[in-house]
Design goal:
By secondary structure, the protein is α+β, with helices and mostly antiparallel strands. 16% of the residues lie in helices and 21% in strands. Strands 27-3-30-29-28 form a 5-stranded mixed β-sheet, with no helix packed on it. Strands 8-9-11-12-10 form a 5-stranded mixed β-sheet, with no helix packed on it. The longest helix has 27 residues. The two termini are 12 Å apart.
Length: 694
């Protein structure tokens, strides 16, 4: 019997490994961001930022009262455990799933302490709970569902004490206790408190080497994990290039031989063109990839789709004035699917794609001629994320970003692996050939269009998932008159525009589409940002979102979020402190070009600063090196010593940590790889259980 207990305990622990690895910043168990309570909760001792509203607080109180606990000390501990669902870090405490895991992971002094959590987490809360409650009657115990059958207790029995359900404190705390070593948290009896590591010294500088002269808008590492990468430009071409090792030469890219040429389909102008590309996580096997671009319905017959200014969005296109001599919805935003199949023996060897479009994923007419973003990328969940601006017009006059019936000013999340039928597309009013992930926010908010993942954005320009912590989905969002911002994107998050610009209330000059009051939304404010006076000469600014730096080339930059401004006057590094808190400080980082750069860098007149021109995008290759895509060429972040910047970690890292082998091509691939390992672990546990019981 004891063997069965130990076996199922092992199985329970393995199940925890399957749930959302490396959850980090404040996040609720439903994947939504915590919100600021307007008044404290009545039952649970949480105020400020929390994951429970008054309705959930009442449910928890009723659940507690139904337990009918007579022992005061035990009652206090059980109340704190129930209320852990309200903690702003509840996604970590419940390992991302409060349904299959009815209680948070309890801190256990026999497990390693997560150094990011306060020292109180080293206390044996699990042991304290057992000692206090082991012989106390607890009706409807939150521990009961996972315990039935483990020590001969039958389902439906009236056993109420822990000692009747568990053989010992050790068994109990092996199943419910611990602080894992992967950066997750444990519950110590109260709201999570993280250690503040103190002020971090910013890197002394960012050293760059120039490896290409071309001007590109997007870069994606080849999904085969090699040292190759795809580059695309705004006019509409994609190239396959070989990326040399640091200091070993120039980017190998033949501009006369594009991987795909869409210049006949793409409308190219200042804010139009090919805005993004994404390669299927399983591209090596299926050859599928996608291009996001703009088209002109006057010049291309296949540029047809519904206008985003429509009756559902409370907008009448006949009342819109021409914008830059273009009629409303003359220009469209398109996602098209292409394939590399049939051009070589296998997709990973393809150097050219089939020129014909396989499938139209998305087509939508744009009301104005600006603010349509257009980046696409696959998330760690395998879904396609599509960034869309508010459609243009000064101050989002039709309030599209706050309109739940408009996809403008939103981040969409689409399932391109399961294409909806024609009837489903018509019934749901979809914009093309895709289906809706079942956990998109619309399932809990019927007013929301099914594609929407997050809203309240003006023009999200360059987003990325952290390759080590996939819950960190970072986006740069361009401001209107004052403020550029960096946001952590979460499910159903509302990022405030045009109620707010940054943290400041915004008053539009005109609002034919109506206004949204600040009290009616739970706006999520930026984690970093800057005011437009950073560029005094231009009198404006435009953020370019970047990446968390995960390469070992510059160990002093490791773990910091690198981003910049279009006008190339500044590059910043955002440092999170405490770790996993979602609280960032940003520092402007000096940058210079290595004297031995494969291509010599030009300098700003009267200065030694490299003349980057415009910073269009940042890129990341399969080695996690960071690249800056500018109007003057392609630059890579390299060892700081090549620019005479000091970094005490550089030599130590080079000695103890040789350059990593090419990693998986994207965050989702590494995530899925970890998941497959966990499923293998689960399978082995199930097999062990079967064999043990024979």
């Amino acid at each position: 019997m004891m063997g069965g207990v130990l076996t199922i305990t092992l199985l329970f622990c393995n199940l925890l490994l399957l749930l959302h690895p490396s959850l980090s910043h404040p996040l609720c168990t439903d994947s939504r961001a915590p919100f600021t309570l307007k008044i404290p909760l009545n039952f649970c001792p949480y105020n400020g930022s929390a994951c429970c509203n008054s309705t959930k607080d009442l449910e928890l109180r009723n659940q507690f009262q139904a337990m009918n606990i007579s022992h005061q000390g035990c009652a206090s501990l059980l109340k704190s455990i129930l209320c852990a669902r309200c903690d702003q870090f509840s996604a970590q405490l419940f390992r991302g799933d409060s349904i299959s895991q009815p209680v948070p992971v309890l801190c256990n002094s026999t497990f390693p302490l997560n150094t990011s959590q306060s020292i109180s987490a080293s206390s044996g809360f699990c042991s304290e709970l057992w000692d206090t409650c082991q012989n106390v009657s607890i009706l409807n115990s939150p521990f009961a569902p996972s315990l039935q059958g483990q020590s001969g207790v039958t389902v439906g029995s009236n056993v109420t004490k822990l000692t009747e359900l568990w053989q010992s404190k050790t068994d109990f705390c092996n199943a419910f206790g611990g602080a894992s070593t992967d950066g997750s948290l444990c519950f110590d009896g109260g709201p999570v408190v993280l250690n503040n590591a103190g002020a971090s010294t910013p890197p002394s500088g960012l050293c760059l080497e120039k490896i290409g002269n071309g001007s590109y808008l997007s870069m994606v590492g080849h999904p085969d994990g090699s040292n190759r990468a795809f580059f695309s430009d705004q006019p509409g071409k994609i190239w396959l290039a070989t990326v040399p090792k640091e200091g070993a030469g120039k980017l190998e890219l033949d501009e006369t031989k594009p991987f795909l040429d869409l210049t006949d389909e793409v409308h190219f102008d200042a804010e139009f063109g090919m805005m993004g590309m994404a390669f299927h996580p399983n591209f090596v096997q299926n050859g599928r990839f996608f291009a996001s671009f703009n088209c002109d319905k006057i010049k291309w017959p296949r540029c047809t789709g519904r206008c985003s200014c429509n009756s559902d969005a409370n907008c009448d296109p006949s009342k819109l004035q021409p914008d830059n001599n273009a009629s409303p919805c003359q220009f469209h935003s398109v996602i098209a699917e292409f394939t590399a199949n049939g051009t070589s023996s296998q997709p990973s060897l393809a150097t050219v794609a089939q020129p014909s479009e396989v499938r139209r994923i998305f087509t939508m007419g744009l009301p104005f001629t600006s603010h349509h973003a257009g980046q696409i990328l696959f998330g760690p969940d395998g879904y396609l994320y599509f960034m869309m601006g508010d459609g243009g017009g000064s101050g989002d006059p039709y309030n599209f970003a706050q309109n739940k019936k408009s996809v403008l000013g939103k981040i969409m999340r689409l399932d391109i692996n399961n294409i909806a039928s024609a009837a489903e597309i018509s019934n749901l009013g979809l914009w093309g050939n895709y289906s809706i992930p079942k956990d998109n926010p619309f399932t809990e908010d019927e007013e929301l269009l099914p594609e929407i993942w997050a809203m309240g954005l003006r023009n999200p320009w360059r987003c990325s998932f952290d390759s080590e912590r996939p819950s960190y989905f970072m986006c740069g969002d361009t401001g209107q008159d004052e403020y550029e911002e960096v946001d952590i994107i979460t499910k159903d998050g509302n990022y405030g525009w045009r109620v707010y610009e940054g943290m400041n209330l915004y008053t539009p000059k005109q609002s034919p589409g109506g206004n949204t009051s600040a009290n009616s939304i739970n706006a999520i404010f930026p984690v970093m940002g800057y005011y437009h006076d950073i560029n005094k000469n231009e009198g404006s600014a435009s953020i370019t979102g970047g990446y968390f730096y995960r390469s070992m080339a510059d160990p002093c930059m490791y773990g910091r979020y690198v981003f910049g401004d279009l006008y190339a006057k500044a590059i910043w590094a955002g440092t999170e402190n405490p770790e996993n808190s979602g609280n960032f400080t940003m520092n402007e980082i000096p940058f210079s070009c290595a004297h031995d750069s494969p291509i010599q860098c030009n300098s700003v007149p009267g200065s030694s600063v490299p003349a980057l021109g415009y910073i269009f995008s940042f890129g990341e290759d399969n080695n996690k090196d960071i690249f800056i895509l500018t109007s003057s060429g392609v630059y890579r972040v390299v060892r700081p010593s090549r620019c005479n910047y000091s970094c005490s970690k550089e030599n130590a890292t080079a000695t103890s940590n040789p350059s990593p082998a090419p990693s998986s091509p994207s965050s989702q691939a590494s995530w899925l790889n970890d998941l497959s390992k966990n499923f293998l672990l689960l399978f082995s546990s199930l097999l062990f259980l079967v064999l043990f019981s024979i």
